[in-house]
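Obj: model holo form, ligand = dephospho coenzyme A.
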Amino acid sequence: MIIGLTGGIATGKSTASHILSEQGIPIIDADLIAREVVMPGKEAYQKIVAFFGEKILQEDNTLNRTKLGEIIFNNAEKRLRLNEIVHPAVREEMKNQAEHHLNTGSKIVIMDIPLLFESKLTHMVEETWLIYASPEIQLKRLMERNGYTEEQALSRIHSQMPIDDKKALADVVISNNGTKIELEEKLINQIKRL
Ligand SMILES: CC(C)(COP(=O)(O)OP(=O)(O)OC[C@H]1O[C@@H](n2cnc3c(N)ncnc32)[C@H](O)[C@@H]1O)[C@@H](O)C(=O)NCCC(=O)NCCS
Ligand SMILES: Nc1ncnc2c1ncn2[C@@H]1O[C@H](COP(=O)(O)OP(=O)(O)OP(=O)(O)O)[C@@H](O)[C@H]1O
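Output (holo C-alpha cells):
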C-alpha cells in the first residue's frame, strides 16, 4: 500500500515522516529526490542553468537554492518552468524507490510529496494523508524555522494550494496544531487502522 503524505509548506510533513520512519515504515521524500536530480551533471541541472542563467549558481557550480527560491516563489511562470524541468525526474525516481520497497517485503510505503494535489499525483498513491496546520500556525512555524520575514514566508505559502482547500481533497486529515507527541499518537493510530 502506498500512502501519499502531503500538507502545506511547514505544516509538518517531515516531522510526520520522521515519526513514521521510526515505526519502521520506508519513506520516499520528494524534496530530497528533488535535491538529488538537480546536482551538477544531471539533465535537470543543465536545463535549469540554460533557462535561469549562471546567476543562480554558487561558486562550486551547485545551485544557489536561496536565489532560485527568491525567483520562483515570486514568479508563477518561472515556477511552472522549474516544475516542468524537475518534476518528471522526481516522479520517476519515486516510482523506482516504491517498487524496490514493495518488492523487498514492505507492506506500507509513504511518499512524502508537498505538491501531491497541485501536481495531480494522486494516481501514484492509494490513500492520501494531509498533515494540517492552521494558516496562522503554518506561517509562524515557517517564519521561525527558516528565519523568513512575513513577506518571504507568504510568497512561499501562496505558491501552493491553500491548506484549507487541501482538506477537502485528502482521504485522511491529521491535525498538527498541537504538540509533536499528539501528532505521533495520531499517526500511530492511522498505522494501526491499516
Ligand atoms: C526552489 C528551490 C531550489 C528552493 O530550495 P529550498 O532549499 O529553499 O527549499 P526546499 O527544496 O527545501 O523546499 C521547501 C518547501 O518549499 C515548497 N516548495 C518547493 N518547491 C515548490 C514549488 N515549485 N511550488 C510550491 N512549493 C514548493 C515545498 O513545500 C517544500 O517542502 C527548491 O524548492 C526547488 O527546486 N523546487 C522545485 C522542485 C519542487 O517542486 N520541489 C517540491 C516537491 S517535488
Ligand atoms: N506539533 C508541532 N509543534 C511544534 N513545532 C512543530 C510541530 N510540528 C512541526 N513543527 C515544527 O515546524 C516546522 C515545520 O515542520 P516540518 O519541517 O516537519 O514541515 P514540512 O511540512 O516538512 O515543511 P516543508 O514543506 O518545508 O518541507 C519545523 O521547525 C518543525 O520542527
